[in-house]
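Before our next group meeting I need something from you. Please put the record directly below this note.
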Amino acid sequence: MPEMSGLRRASLAAAAVGATTTIASAAGSLAAAAYFARRVLTPERNRPDDVEILDVPPGRVVLSATAETVVPGRYGLWLDGGRGHARLGDLVDTDVAEDTVEREVLGVDAGELRPGGARFDGYYYAGTPDTALGLRSEHVHVDGELGPMPAWLVPAEGGTGSRWAVLVHGRGAQRQETLRALPVLHAAGWTSLVPTYRNDEDVPAGPDGRYNLGLSEWRDIEAAVEHAVRCGAEEVLLVGWSMGGAIVLQFLDRSPWAVVVSRVVLDGPVIDWGDVLAHHARLHRVPRGVGSLSRSMMGRRWGKRLVGVHESVDVARTDWVRRADELTHPVLLIHSADDEFVPVGPSRQLAQHRPDLVTYEEWRVARHCKEWNTEPERWERLVRDFVTEDVAGNVAEDVAQSPSGDASGE
């Protein structure tokens, strides 16, 4: 019957079109998921200007209003593509009609403050510990699995001493992110070591040239801790910002050198990369299925080539809310409820699960890893009290029993 055969041909054609559409849709989702994963894991070398300097009256600067520039506190301003730097104080005026803000200028470290493009930053300080803070420091190298990694060493008064802090900056950040913490640690008698890790600028890259969300970077911090112990450290404090917090947590979980760590300070840390990636997928309107597929691809052997990673990035292994019972070190956890980059939820949950180990301090107003900027006195008081508490226990005995030679960590 012609009608039936025609209907059958139409159905077959529709089925073929439907199958092609489904295949194309699946391929598109796979490609989109791979692209999203690569964006997350790829270091960003280009840091474009994000604010406009409109006027420079005496002792002041007028900037375009942005989500960053309208927040109270102390901040930095990179000038001339990063070659210059100024330190800014609090808000003086906000002009809603003109969409501008006026802030104090507390100092110009390099370059000239003049109208034009600039980049707002939360480091506040620029340079090295000696140039920015007047703290005697040494430029050393830590022998890591990828080769020598530059580090700053800020000895305690009277020598390096036996108490060392290892400070770990965040994803895409520079060591200058840690400068804000050095004065309070130095005053409390700690020697500070500020290492670099793979895929930082001007240091050896990992085998794939991509971030592994702490799942490989922890080995570079392991090398830094081993360096500290070989230089006389008997007690180690770890301090991590953002992804630096995720790196610290992986180190504590996977390195035999974790026995020498007495306590940990985390600022705006990634407690669960799955939560962070889901947050950014929503922000960028990535379909939920694509975001979920992206996270799955990172951790699957079949997805390594598509994502471009040498080692699988198992996001589930970074979920410290789920793994809360595995924590063994006292933690001072600082996080802002208004953190736009790393949502505060997992930090709150971790603190609720482990009140025996986690001292949780929540900020308001501050954006990502800018708690010090909005309330420096509070931040320094909390850190000073925490790092001077007697929580070391039997760390000295643990140092004596710590690994020697090659600390492979696995």
Q: What stands out?
A: Confidence is low (pLDDT under 50) at residues 1-24, 405-410. The chain has twelve helices and 14 strands. The longest helix spans residues 2-41. Residues 51-121 form one domain.
